[in-house]
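Folds abound. A case:
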Amino acid sequence: MTNKINAREIALDMVIDILEKDGYIHKVIYNSLKDYQFLDKRDRAFITRVCNGTVKHYITIDYIINKHASLSTNKMKPLIRNILRTSVFQLFYMDQVPISAICNEAVKISKKRGFNKLSGFVNGILRNISREYSSRSIDVIEFPNKEKETSRYFSIKYSTPLWLVDKIINQYNEQITEEILKDSLKEKHLTIRTNCNLIKPNDLKDNLTNQGLTIEENPDIHYAFKLSNYDYLDKLDDFNLGHFTVQDYSSMLVIEAAGIKDTDFVVDVCAAPGGKSLHAAERAKEVSARDLTEYKINLINENIKRLAINNIKTKVWDACVTDESLIRKADIVIADLPCSGLGVLRKKPDIKYKIKQEQINELVELQRKILTVISDYIKINGILLYSTCTINKEENIENIDWFVNNFDFELENMNDYIPKGYQDENSQKGYLQLLPGAQESDGFFIARLRRKG
């Protein structure tokens, strides 16, 4: 790998931005790689993996460091603890990288950044860890006893705050919790949706395959694919021509569950970056896509232009404020509302460290406020599609129970609309809770509700 020091320093600075300065991992990675497009694909892959992996596993990594350091990580200089974190990640999760290179580069960066006196401290810890765990396997680490300290074991093994582990166990059970946490540590994959207005799914598949990309079909959603072995999406003609857009399978199911007809007027109240609005527009007569800020609306407009969609109108609008012009006008309202994001930890691992119970409580109240406002937009017998990218029951089924008990809506069987591979006893009742990894999708909740006549 070329530019070793440069690549490691770039990754280090990205980790510091996320763990010390509260940056968002997806934004930090995107913006940083945009600045370093001149690096070759291998270097950029190394940077991304070190950054994403260190953040994803950092509770586990700190546990290992603290077993071998005279000073706990929370008392170390921010630069030093993050040099150690990125180095320990390489030791245990990138065994193709030589130990000597990891230790030597960590020492060099320490000195270069003005911590010459602490370079020996860094070197000593890394050498001790590498000697004790010569196999470089995370499986040889002595974690807390799983039977006696189940929550603490899960917390350290799967790098998740203890309070959040307890919360998931209380809502599901220990076995399901472990599966959810295991999935959160896996490598994220990219899924795409064909823009069926411009190209047939099989033609898109052939185009991308002929360019050397790896395409996997979704057995239940004929227009959806998993995409890998690509460099930059912006370099693909099919992307620039609007032949596909990035979207998770779970988000596609929202539009499937809506059962949109070509005569329908659809309102998407929290639409950015526009995936569901664009998908709905393939089937609806007209779509009104709204969000809170000009920035978010611009994201939607960029995608509208790229995908050549002409039946969407965008509008900056606060979903908590009633738009009198929409009262009883919508055949379908899509409410993919702000949520805790606990279903997308594989893609955004920093969420688990940032979210707090107080914020979840506030989100539940916000969701209920928005539902109260937008319920007035829906015609008699019209449909409300409620969705979140979380597994937290307070934001999902408990919110829906509250809504049905307070408004003139009822859950409706969605099995007539969604593919068979996603149907279960709950979807027959009108809602679907996808758990992370169970069907190669994000953790996601969808409910289909009809306004009573």
In short: The two ends are 66 Å apart (CA to CA). The CA atoms of residues 242 and 307 lie 4 Å apart.
